[in-house]
Amino acid sequence: MGINKNNFFSCPISKEPLFAKGDNFTSESGTDYFKKGLGFYDFKIKSHISSSDEYYKNISSTYDTYNDLTFKIQGQDEKKIRKFGISKLGKLKNKELLEIGCGTGRDSELIIEKLKNSEGNYFLLDSSKEMLEICINKLKEFKFKNKHFVLAEATNLPFQDNKFDLIYQFTVYPSILNKEMFFNEINRILKPGGKFVMISEGISENIKDTTFAKIILNNSQLYNEELPIKYLPKEATNIKIEYLLNEIFFYFSFKKRKIERALNDIIIPGKR
């Protein structure tokens, strides 16, 4: 199927539709966005450069070397945990799929293996140019044509409304400063019936006063992340939560309702 360039992207700020202009995009108001470097679409808002951009730039070259230590210290296999998260998406074939925070492609390699002969599109988004470029190089060997790399922020997604069947995110959530804005964006671009899946650092409340938890939190405050229940849109349904890795990570997912909630108009006997 490939990508319909005039029916997918939007301005990350105004949300007005973007139209193809060669390999680049433009809006009716005259804002231009360009395809750059190794072939990624650049929708990064320049005024939003943050300290996390510099952090990921600095660690990008060593990220793949040390990332598995987080899992090994818990006696867990990193790939197994990532495969668990991906499995929660369900069937990937012929779906419109977005991965937010693809980083160097540690999940992306596992996802793209499942997309052979799929007619859907796979969008890989990250806010770090350096991390995204590593991901692009890593996935060169995969023949799946409908993969599209996007440089953008999770709180300013450059997509039109109701476009994705599936959205996936792994250990990106703690770095998102405006959680409410993030979930508003997820809800906006999910199709009715679409599913959002994420795995994040976050210690379960029932162990926070243990010595084990205090050691973990002393090492990194990322694990102090709370469940995002209060940020969920009213359209969220089929909400699932499960703690992983000695209860210091959590799996979280929901679907976007297809129809509004309603009560049947019936008479209930008895006093109320």
Number of strand elements: 11
Class computed from helices, strands and strand pairing: alpha/beta
Low-confidence stretches: none
Radius of gyration: 20 Å
What order do the helices and strands follow? EEEEHHHHEHEHEEHEHEE
- For the biggest β-sheet, the strand order reads 1-2-3-4-7-6-5-8-9-11-10
- Please tell me what the overall shape is: globular
Mean residue pLDDT: 92
Helix fraction by DSSP (H/I, runs of at least 4): 10-25%
Query: In angstroms, what separates the terminal alpha carbons?
Result: 57 Å
Main sheet: strands, sense, barrel: 11 strands, mixed
Strand content: 15-25%
Which oligomeric form is depicted? single chain
Number of helices: 8
Notable characteristics:
272 residues, alpha/beta, 11-stranded mixed sheet, 8 helices, 11 strands, 23% helix, globular
Write the layout of secondary structure elements.
Layout: E1 18-21, E2 24-27, E3 32-36, E4 40-42, H1 51-59, H2 63-66, H3 69-72, H4 78-87, E5 97-100, H5 108-112, E6 122-126, H6 129-138, E7 147-151, E8 164-170, H7 179-189, E9 190-201, H8 211-219, E10 236-244, E11 249-256
Parallel strand pairs: 4-7, 5-6, 5-8, 6-7, 8-9
Antiparallel strand pairs: 1-2, 2-3, 3-4, 9-11, 10-11
Task: Report a brief summary of the structure.
This protein has 272 residues and is an alpha/beta fold.
Structural account:
By secondary structure, this protein is α/β, with parallel strands linked by helices. It contains 8 helices and 11 strands. An 11-stranded mixed β-sheet has the order 1-2-3-4-7-6-5-8-9-11-10. The longest helix is centred in the last third of the chain and has 11 residues, at about 180-190.
